[in-house]
Design goal:
It contains 11 helices and 16 strands. By secondary structure, it is an alpha/beta fold.
Length: 349
């Protein structure tokens, strides 16, 4: 969720400022194409990938369910595909920008959806969130972590935004598991499952091509959101996320990384080091705040996201991310939790 204004040192954007044009592509390797689709958020784009696959192309990630994204897909089919068909649809994880058009794409071409079990089930479950039980749990979660009445009104008005930009998922899928090898277009792509950002986030590594499709698990400039959510209020996702970064250490230093946001880059190992150092520094900042005075998740937002004006969408992410740091520190024994007279959970040294 954090970002910086410039490219981190040690990271090389191999295409510089060049980006795929709307409805167009850049060929990263023979038969591997990079395309972009718009998002209606502060993070205004997602990178998607086409992989030559027999007599057609496999898609990796889909974009959100909006008419302008469908129209851009039509342009891609007319240009890059040149009349060739879609063979499979791969989804790295269940978030709307990745899974939103999965059923439209698979239905349009009569092909299967490929993803992990955790992401398929998370997508189905998230579309179903709603009703009194879910509202009560969400209300209790955010109030318990320090959100005031104004913040709660904004959060409750927003409701479950997921079904608005993610179509109902296909009724079946092909399971991807960690360590599995999938043959796509004459190349073996090994599945690496990362955790923390999503339940079973699929990354795809083709050693022969020197490519890693990293999804949101590893981004070159911003840090992916790692948050605690109302459905698992005592979760410890940051511990899982930091642990899963080690899965990418064995990859070759010159691996070209294809992320879901920003640009294609090299410097994977350096970026892994940066991500660990970034979270270590944030954890230390959280400890200092909690040492001065017991703090709730909301109390930590100015420290973790200084100068940011947060809308309801960003507020939920910020509370969840603050909690992910607090829960990791509590699991390590560096912080302890208590509940104040108003029922708000606070953490102290």
């Amino acid at each position: 969720m954090d970002d910086t204004a410039r490219t981190p040192s040690g990271i090389d954007y191999i295409y510089g400022d060049r980006l795929p044009p709307p409805g167009g592509t850049i060929e990263v390797r023979p038969g591997v194409y990079w395309l972009r689709m718009p998002l209606p958020f502060k993070l205004d784009h997602i990178n998607l990938w086409l992989l030559a696959d027999g007599d057609g192309y496999a898609i990796v990630d889909c974009g959100i369910a909006r008419d302008e994204v469908k129209a851009l897909w039509e342009q891609v089919w007319a240009s890059t595909l040149g009349g060739r068909r879609i063979t499979r649809v791969f989804v790295t994880h269940f978030h709307p920008d990745h899974m939103g058009l999965a059923s439209w794409l698979t239905g349009r071409w009569g092909v299967g959806l490929w993803c992990s079990y955790g992401e398929y089930m998370a997508g189905r479950a998230t579309r179903a969130v709603g009703g009194d039980n879910d509202d009560r749990a969400r209300d209790a979660f955010y109030r318990r972590n320090g959100v005031d009445d104004a913040g709660m009104a904004s959060l409750m008005e927003r409701g479950n935004h997921y079904p608005k930009i993610v179509l109902p998922l296909p009724g079946s899928f092909h399971r991807l598991e960690h360590g599995q090898s999938v043959r796509i277009g004459g190349h073996d792509w090994r599945v690496i499952v990362g955790t923390g950002h999503a339940p079973e986030h699929v990354c795809l590594h083709a050693a022969e091509l020197g490519l890693l499709i990293s999804g949101d698990q590893i981004l070159p400039r911003i840090t992916t959101n790692v948050a605690v959510w109302p459905q698992e209020p005592e979760g410890n996702p940051l511990a899982r996320y930091l642990g899963s970064l080690d899965l990418f250490r064995p990859l070759a230093p010159d691996t070209v990384t294809l992320p879901s946001h920003d640009r294609v880059f090299t410097g994977l190992h350096h970026r892994l080091d940066m991500l660990k150092a970034h979270h270590d520094e944030r954890l230390d900042r959280v400890v200092k705040v909690c040492a001065a005075k017991p703090a709730s998740a909301v109390d930590l937002i100015p420290t973790l996201f200084p100068g940011r004006q947060l809308d309801s969408h960003q507020l939920s992410f910020a509370v969840g991310e603050a909690l992910s740091h607090l829960h990791l520190l509590a699991s390590q024994g560096r912080l302890r939790r208590s509940v104040d007279a108003a029922g708000v959970v606070r953490f102290s040294t």
